[in-house]
Amino acid sequence: MSDSNTQYTRLMERARQARERAYAPYSNFKVGAALLTAGGEVITGGNVENASYGLSMCAERVALFAAVARGERDIRAIAVAAGTRAIPCGACRQVMLELAPEADVITREEDGSLRVQKVKELLPDAFTL
Ligand code: THU
Question: How does pLDDT run across 85-115, given as a tens digit for each residue?
Fold first, then answer.
């Protein structure tokens, strides 16, 4: 059984691979996300942009919606990879709170180390129904 640091390093590598499949011709800012499920499965996504810019979808939400489509509702961790440091946007934080409220969010610091934060830290005092 690998410790969570090793597990999260591997998850970040899967996010980096997913980033290669992002479709970002307008911003040229490719992002990849990798979700770790309770069962140890990894579900990935990259951002998908559109000529009508507002229709673009972040990598995190592409991966989260894919997880729901696969019937995976117990997401333990979400790794996000970009060329530079990237942290989830506000819209993604709201969707994370809905679909993966207990998840760890893994991002990479400038120095290459991993940062681990809870979804609820990223979106305190959130709106819910
Ligand atoms: N983007 C993501 O996919 N995830 C983030 O965490 C930050 C931003 C995307 C949205 C858009 O396609 C591009 O990056 C530039 O904002």
Answer: 899 999 999 999 999 999 999 999 999 999 9
Q: How far is the CA of 2 from the centre of ligand 1 (A)?
A: 30
- Decide: residue 25, CB within 10 A, 0-12 exposed, 13-18 middle, 19+ buried: exposed
Q: Whose CA is nearest to atom 9 of ligand 1?
A: 58
Cα of 27 to ligand 1 centre, how many Å?
9
Residues in contact with ligand 1 (CB, 6 Å cut-off): 24, 27, 29, 31, 47, 49, 56, 58-60, 80, 86, 88-89, 92
Which residue segment(s) compose the domain that 95 sits in? 3-122
What's the pTM?
0.96
Can 60 be counted among the known catalytic residues? yes
CATH of the domain at 69: 3.40.140.10
Handedness of CA 99, 104, 110, 113 (dihedral sign): negative
